């Protein structure tokens, strides 16, 4: 019976399932976090406006960075992660002489892939912020970097947070393709378990339940954080003119 074999596989290979799950989480968490950082940086560059009429080094550098970011997003959004894994893992050794471990290559792949998708999400988040706030801050003489840090990014982060959660949950599932470069994540581990007794249905049923539990738990976590960010109790609305208060 399938249920009996599921119990046997869990009893005999429970440690392998646990190690595979831990590896999946390590790659997902580290790769997604680095991808968030990269995506924000690329999004900031893409959202920056270059004054083409101004002939300066700053303008030339910004235009060059925008082109590089556009090319990067085009490449990693237009190719599957499984192909990116093969190119980065094997290509890094042949082209650059870098002998990357499967884990390191996996983190790089997830980071670059996540960064490309997050860059577009961040750019959309920046555009969702009222342009009048930026213009008003510029009129008050605030530096552009300070405007981004204090005005634009906090509001954009709140707007794009649901997509950030979806990206992380997707990465948990997408790490399964990294078995192609021998990363000992959950899917790779399951192939070993399934081949031991040729019980593929039972072995992959266990894996499906583990993936489902992981996505369910993190989905609850992100929903909770999203509600916390949207809770008006976490924000202080200024309804009194501080200048008039000082004069009173």
Detailed description of the structure:
- With 248 residues, the chain is mostly helical.
- The chain has nine helices and no strands.
- Helix 1 (2-47) crosses helix 8 (200-230), helix 6 (144-174) runs antiparallel to helix 8 (200-230) and helix 7 (186-197) runs antiparallel to helix 8 (200-230).
- The chain starts with a helix and ends with a helix.
Kindly state the mean pLDDT as a whole number?
86
- Integer tally of domains: 1
Helix-strand string? HHHHHHHHH
CATH topology: MetI-like fold
Q: What general form does the structure show?
A: elongated
* Structure class: mainly alpha
Could you tell me how far the N terminus lies from the C terminus, measured between alpha carbons in angstroms? Answer: 81 Å
- Work out the strand percent: under 5%
Structure keywords:
mainly alpha, MetI-like fold, 9 helices, 80% helix, 0% strand
Describe the structure in brief.
This protein has helices at residues 2-47, 57-77, 81-96, 102-128, 131-139, 144-174, 186-197, 200-230, 242-247. With 248 residues, it is an all-alpha fold. α1 crosses α4 (102-128) and α5 packs antiparallel against α6.
Sequence-ordered SSE layout with sheet pairings:
Blueprint: H1 2-47, H2 57-77, H3 81-96, H4 102-128, H5 131-139, H6 144-174, H7 186-197, H8 200-230, H9 242-247
Helix pairs in contact: 1-4, 1-6, 1-7, 1-8, 2-4, 3-4, 4-6, 5-6, 6-8, 7-8
């Amino acid at each position: 019976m399938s249920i009996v074999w599921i119990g046997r596989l869990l009893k005999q290979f429970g440690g392998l399932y646990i190690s595979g799950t831990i590896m999946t989480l390590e790659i997902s968490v580290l790769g997604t976090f680095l991808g968030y950082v990269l995506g924000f940086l690329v999004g900031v560059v893409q959202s920056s406006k270059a004054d083409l009429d101004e002939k300066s080094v700053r303008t030339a550098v910004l235009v060059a960075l925008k082109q590089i970011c556009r090319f990067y997003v085009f490449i990693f959004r237009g190719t599957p992660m499984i192909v990116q894994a093969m190119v980065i893992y094997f290509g890094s050794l042949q082209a650059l002489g870098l002998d990357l471990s499967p884990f390191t290559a996996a983190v790089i792949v997830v980071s670059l892939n996540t960064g490309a998708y997050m860059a577009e999400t961040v750019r959309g988040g920046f555009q969702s912020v009222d342009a009048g706030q930026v213009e008003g801050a510029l009129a008050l003489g605030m530096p552009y970097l300070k405007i981004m840090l204090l005005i634009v990014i906090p509001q954009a982060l709140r707007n794009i947070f649901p997509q950030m959660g979806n990206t992380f949950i997707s990465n948990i599932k997408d790490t399964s393709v990294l078995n192609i470069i021998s990363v000992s994540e959950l899917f790779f581990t399951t192939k070993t378990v399934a081949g031991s007794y040729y019980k593929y249905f039972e072995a992959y049923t266990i894996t499906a339940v583990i993936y489902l539990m992981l996505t369910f738990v993190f989905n609850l976590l992100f929903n909770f954080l999203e509600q916390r960010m949207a809770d008006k109790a976490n924000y202080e609305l200024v309804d009194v003119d501080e200048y008039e208060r000082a004069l009173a």
